[in-house]
Amino acid sequence: MSGPNQSLKPMLTDSIDAMKRVGLARRHAESASVPVIYLIEADAAQALPVRDLLVSNGYQVEWFDSLAALREVGLRDAVPAVLIIDMGIAECDAVVAHLTMEFKARGLYGPTIILTSARDDIEAQLSAYRAGASRYLTKPLEGERLLRVLREEAPRIPTEPYRVLLVDDDLQQLEIQAAALIEAGMQIRTESDPIKALAALQQRMPDVLLLDMHMPHCSGPELAAILRDHEVYRQLPILFIATATDSIEQLIALDLNGGDVFIKPIEPVRLVAAVHSRVRRMRQQNEMLESLRTIIYEREREHLALNQHAIVSIADARGKITYINDRFCAVSGYSHAELLGKDHRIINSGEHPAGFFSEMWRSIGSGKIWRGEICNRRKDGSLYWV
Question: What angle do CA 234, 240, 245 make, to 5 degrees?
């Protein structure tokens, strides 16, 4: 690719700055509102409980009992985050096509479409996805599952805008890409010099990096290889922009953490959809990891508290001790090494009849809880009750 046209720089900067102002202002206004859901269901007995459930969980719900009712109202000023459509409604496919056309005509990124049906067979599911559905749910709708799906799908305009760094020495391409992503409500930063891209990454980590394959001084795959050697950037999603003749380089790009390769000229709708999908998936993974870290931390604190106040041992199905805590060792007088791999006979006091322990192990072996008092013998021969 040839070097950037310097005469375009002032025009490009002004254009992108203006688009950023418009895009961010629009996104701020939209994100301040409650997520809007369109429910298209002919059966009031099924629609009303769903509507009440969603409203009680903080969603704004518009219920339509037919395609005609939806057409009569139109899209108004609200942009729905999700459409929940009964596949049995008249002209279901037409509903999807109608709304898709309206969103495209208004230059908006379309909502998630959830199709519902009483059928639970693969043919019905295939029909739903071929009609344009993102998710398929069987009736009657189970409340917790529906809410879980909506938590995943509803934030088409996220609380925090998606951050994208575009690196391309072609300023006209930068403007086209930035315009499409800003219109979708994303925060965009552009860089025409790949050498400066690392500094831009250090200033603020983006959610996704968009790289041109061919740039002077440093190609897209070369920059991706450099980033891969930095631990902080290893999980950063990278999307590449290539020409139709870059088949080998596309494979290299995919190997360098690139989840997708775009062929010029880029369709704005496909670009927005791919960026949105990658960022949302990455944020969901990060949320899951953070939730897991919290759970592990809480379990560690519980474990610490338990060890401070209780005698704990764990045995396998054969009765062999696989774990003992420090307090167990302190009370019994045995070390960890002396107890691990042994069975509990090592601390048997002989004070209980043979049937006592048989009953205990029968209860535990069947998955039940056993409660009682046991007299054990310490290493020094003294007795203690637990």
Answer: 135
Burial profile 281-305: b = 16 or more Cβ within 10 angstroms, e = fewer: ebeeeeeeeeeeeeeeeeeeeeeee
Distances (CA, A) of 120 to 115, 124, 138: 12, 7, 6
Q: Which residues of 153-191 are buried (b: 16+ CB within 10 A; e: fewer)?
A: bbbbbbeebbbbbbbbbbbebbbbbbbbbbbbbbbbbbb
CA 33/CA 29 separation, integer angstroms: 7
- Tell whether the torsion through CA atoms of 1, 219, 10 and 184 is positive or negative: positive
pLDDT tens by residue, 218-258: 888 888 888 888 888 888 888 888 887 766 666 666 666 55
How confident is the model over 116-169, as pLDDT tens digits?
999 989 988 888 888 778 889 999 999 989 988 887 776 544 557 889 999 998
Beta carbons of 121 and 87 less than 8 angstroms apart: no
Model's pTM, two decimal places?
0.54
